[in-house]
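User: quick one, sequence for these tokens?
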């Protein structure tokens, strides 16, 4: 029996080690790249410090995810035979980013940006940055960035159309979270809001105001449905609160009547009679 228990513990230990190895391989390997560059100065050090502030670092996306190579081997990490790609040429940047952001790449390539000469036209890092890539936000559409290449007026129209619907989605999402915490079944509404956000975001990289407005028109009924669902729940909450207040009032009134009844019953004058 003891031998069986020891064998089972050994199997569990082996499985745990295998799991940890697979799960943390990228993180452990990436330390080789980061540790090496962290000891450098100037140009070699800069990418590490920038990466540490990025959405990539926040989500466990390390150097080798973009640049390839063998991050587990400090000597051969930058060997082409180990898949090292190095710094991409400007025209290759969309494909680099598109390895992970597949849908975004498709939208970008369909856009005026993607159809421009990639050697000189706008690519991902011009708006999102490279090593210090931040979480995508509507605020990326701004005069400082857009006016580097063209007039900001068209971008302003695009941003305003997008932002109005984005703000509505944010409001609905926050409302939904509150209702969920209060115990209401809003999972279906949540899925609808999530789907609407994805549909809206799917066209933003096409930088086409017509397509953005078409997308907004398509998702608007779903957002209206979410608002209607929230309104029904609010009415239900209001009814519950009124019923609760009424129930408490009735209980209080009964308690008060009972109190005076008992007081009257216990009065000595009533007893003497």
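Assistant:
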């Amino acid at each position: 029996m003891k031998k069986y228990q020891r064998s089972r513990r050994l199997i569990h230990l082996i499985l745990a080690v295998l799991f940890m190895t697979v799960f943390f391989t990228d993180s452990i390997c990436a330390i080789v790249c980061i540790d090496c560059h962290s000891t450098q100065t100037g140009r070699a050090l800069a990418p590490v410090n920038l990466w540490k502030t990025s959405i990539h670092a926040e989500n466990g996306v390390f150097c080798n995810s973009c640049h390839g190579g063998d991050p587990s081997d400090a000597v051969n990490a930058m060997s082409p035979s180990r898949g090292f790609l190095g710094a991409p040429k400007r025209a290759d940047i969309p494909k680099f980013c598109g390895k992970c952001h597949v849908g975004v790449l498709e939208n970008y390539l369909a856009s005026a940006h993607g159809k421009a000469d990639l050697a000189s036209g706008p690519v991902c890092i011009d708006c999102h940055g490279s090593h210090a890539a931040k979480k995508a936000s509507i605020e990326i559409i701004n005069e400082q960035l857009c006016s580097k290449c063209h007039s900001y007026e068209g971008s302003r129209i695009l941003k305003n159309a997008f932002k109005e619907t984005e703000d509505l989605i944010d409001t609905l999402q926050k409302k939904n979270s509150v209702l969920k915490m209060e115990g209401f079944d809003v999972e279906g509404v949540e899925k609808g809001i999530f789907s609407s956000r994805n549909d809206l975001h799917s066209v933003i990289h096409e930088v086409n105001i017509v397509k953005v407005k078409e997308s907004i028109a398509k998702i608007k009924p779903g957002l209206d449905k979410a608002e209607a669902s929230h309104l029904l729940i609010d009415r239900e909450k209001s009814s519950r609160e009124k019923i609760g207040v009424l129930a408490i009032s009735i209980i209080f009134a009964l308690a008060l009547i009972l109190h005076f009844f008992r007081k009257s019953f216990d009065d000595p004058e009533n007893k003497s009679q």
